[in-house]
Amino acid sequence: MTQASTGFDPEAVRAKYLRERDKRLISGRAEIRDLDNDPEFGHYRRDPFTPWSERDTISNDVDVCILGGGIAGIALGVELRKAGVENIRFVDTAGGFGGTWYWNRYPGVMCDVESYIYLPMLEETGYIPKRRYAFGDEILEYLQSLATQFDLNRDALFHTSVKRASWDESAKRWIIETDRGDRFATRYYTIAPGILNLLKLPTIPGMAEFKGHSFHSARWDYEFTGGAPGEPLTKLKDKVVGMIGTGATGIQCVPALADGSKHLWIFQRTPSAIGARNNQATDSTFASNLKPGWQQERMDNFQAIMLGRPVEDDLTNDGWTHHYAKVQNPPARLPGESAADWFTRWEAVDYEIMQAHRSRVESTVGDTATAEILKPWYRYLCKRPCFHDEYLPSFNNDNVTLVDCPSGIDRVVEDGVIVDGKKIELDCIIYATGFEAEATPLYRRAGHDVIGTNGQTLADLWSGGASSLYGLMIRGLPNLFAMPGPAQQSVVTVNYTQLAVLGAEVVGRTIAQLLSKGGPTFEVSAAAEHDWNQKILASFADASALMAACTPSRINNEGHPESRNPLNGNYGRGFGDYFGYRELLNDWVAAGQFEGLELR
Ligand code: NDP
Predict the structure, then answer these.
(1) Residue 524, CB half-sphere, CA atoms under 13 Å: how many?
(2) Helix (H) or strand (E) holding 3
(3) pLDDT tens, residue by residue, 96-117
(4) Is the domain of 419 the same as that of 444?
(5) Is 112 in the pocket of ligand 1 (CB under 6 A)?
(6) Does residue 510 fall inside a structural domain?
């Protein structure tokens, strides 16, 4: 297939994509600081939002301990409360409920998944989001209101990190020890740390020498910048600010920083693909047109489109369903079509979408050289796509300069940074450099040793890759649940809430059933775990050749897709089969037989 029939020149585009990839495929690009053991930067994790207060240590036992008060933890708490489980204790390093929305309060923070499907339990609470895409403060307030409504605060330990969780076989309990000196037992333990709980800081030479102010976007320092989420930044008018990172976070920070700073330097390693946002206030007729079951239906509709299933209407109707779903689900192969021609036809769909993104840059950004640097040259799914309407126009401000540094910043010095041998003086550096996401194993994201039977840890048990029943329960760790997530033998959903709520329903109902039987100890049987692992392996599709052509990102393991472990895959190919997974789990709970578990 050639340029004439597809409207693009596949060879030329492939070559351009590879050239752009190679600029970024440099050794050490994925190196990060280990903030668990970093005397110079460990303080970046401190909570700037809620004052720390003294409290007595806790030693009374509970039925259920939940690590993490984000969406998954809250949803589980709600499920347990609904089932009449009273004796629940949350533990979270944060100063309150909200998870990722507790920590990420940077200016402009919003969720680019539609609010009507992202905010959990809307139908139950009767809450109608203010806008089609909610800002972070609304999400945080809503999550905290759920916690209040379902009485989850009662026994929650905030500003508290679990240091060690160990299974006590004689007591048939998990013993939880925290950094505040608490020590208590729980019958069932659930870990729900999420995938964005560990902020990520690069290892740029000289970082510690910087004498100006610096912080990570997930701990926004409003004391330094002035302002508040959704309000102008008031203290930067005389400050030259540098921001490193142009991912989903960085792009959201830029408009407020551009408005508020004397000068804003944006250091870009890889441009994101910035699709249209089209945010708008919720229509006054929206609520009155809703029918019972509307949120589930809307979530399922979105999910079906993302999985390439036929639907009558596209209820969300946005960049995810238009672009992401289209590229994620390649066109069917035509009768007699060669594999190469089919692949090129799929590439053409991708190219058209990426070309539209590049044209958007060109028509928005006045300076041609800046526009060129902002154009993303890779296939659409090589990086997480972004959606924004004010980011690109910010580059038309005289006080904003984009710095193209595909191989990163040379070094940080005491009054700025060096890029390509040239110094840029800065008063402040903001690291919008992301999180240790799903590629970081669950045992590290959990943040503590989880020690099961015979002293085996979660880290030992998963040293060769994930191993579980349904991605939720693990042999060797009795009475423990891990909430489902990517790289964990469950499925992936672009709308994370939908997976979190499913996990909460299944785990919550299972715990309630177990408690109603007197709270027996369960252990995943060797055969059941083996079967699930085999199912995960069987659905692994090796896309490493395709992914290797991508610009390096967390999606292709920073340029090394070949080292992805098939055991860390999903149930079903690609993202996984969400609907199949849900049916399987619902049937399993409904049967009430705990099939695959040994009860004692
Ligand atoms: P990302 O990992 O997406 O982006 C980090 C940025 O920092 C990238 O631009 C990266 O460059 C850059 N970077 C990292 N290290 C260096 C370095 N050494 N030198 C220069 N630049 C560097 O993090 P985000 O916080 O933006 O997003 C993380 C995830 O959070 C998203 O994928 C998404 O899942 C979630 N999120 C969701 C939002 C939503 O609306 N739903 C909003 C914000 C975040 P490079 O691209 O080259 O690696």
Answers:
(1) 23
(2) helix 3-6
(3) 999 999 999 999 999 999 999 9
(4) no
(5) yes
(6) yes
CA of 548 to the centre of ligand 1 (A): 20
Query: Do 496 and 412 reside in the same domain of the chain?
Result: no
Please tell me the distance from the alpha carbon of residue 370 to that of residue 268, in angstroms, as a whole number: 11
Our answer on whether the CB atom of 204 is closer than 6 Å to any ligand 1 atom is yes
Half-sphere exposure for 24 (CA within 13 Å, toward CB):
24
Residue ranges with strand state E in 68-220? 88-91, 162-168, 173-178, 183-191, 213-216
- Please choose, from the candidates 111, 24, 11, the residue with its C-alpha nearest in 3D space to the C-alpha of residue 382: 24
552 burial via Cβ count (<10 Å: 0-12, 13-18, 19+): buried
Q: What are phi and psi of 188, to 5 degrees?
A: -125, 140
- Distances 119 to 131, 284, 385 between C-alpha atoms, Å: 12, 19, 21
**Which of 431, 450, 481 lies at the terminal end of a domain, its last residue?**
431
CA–CA distances in Å: residue 457 to residues 170, 392, 452, 489, 598: 18, 47, 6, 18, 20
Task: Name the one residue in this structure whose structure tokens are 């919720």.
Answer: 282
Which residue has its alpha carbon closest to ligand 1 atom 46? 270
Same domain, 406 and 508: no
Indicate the average pLDDT of the chain. Answer: 96
**How far is the C-alpha of 450 from the C-alpha of 482, rounded, in Å?**
11
| Helix residue ranges, H only, 398-470 | 442-446, 458-461
Where do runs of H (alpha helix) occur along 263-335? Answer: 294-306, 319, 325-328
Question: What token pair was written down for 373?
Answer: 């640097």
Structural domain ending residue among the three candidates 398, 431, 464:
431
Q: Tell me: the pLDDT tens digits for 523-578?
A: 999 999 999 999 999 999 888 888 999 999 998 999 999 888 999 999 999 999 99
Protein residue with least CA distance to atom 23, ligand 1: 434
Task: Annotate 20-46 with b (16+ C-beta within 10 A) or e (fewer).
Answer: bbeebbeeebbeebebeeeeebeebbe
Two tokens at 189? 């333990």
Does one domain contain both 156 and 220? no
Q: 181 in a domain, yes or no?
A: yes
Orientation angle between helical segments 71-82 and 136-149, nearest 10 degrees:
20
Please give the residue range of the domain that contains residue 451: 62-197+437-521+578-599
CB of 385 closer than 6 A to ligand 1? no
Question: Structural domain tally of the chain?
Answer: 2
Two structure tokens written together for 410: 């040379």
Query: Residues 239, 209: one domain?
Result: yes
Residue 333, phi then psi, degrees to nearest 5: -75, 135
Q: Of 382, 377, 375, 379, which Cα lies nearest the Cα of 358?
A: 375
Best probe residue, ligand 1, of 433, 436, 560 (max atoms within 8 Å of C-beta): 433
Q: Which residues contact 10 (CB under 8 A, 6 or more apart)?
A: 1, 2, 3, 344, 347, 348
Q: Specify the pLDDT at position 1.
A: 46
Same domain (yes/no): 395, 465: no
Model-level pTM? Answer: 0.97
Residue 273 sits in the same domain as residue 403:
yes
Given this model, what pLDDT does residue 438 score?
Answer: 85
Q: How remote is the CA of residue 187 from the centroid of ligand 1, in Å?
A: 38
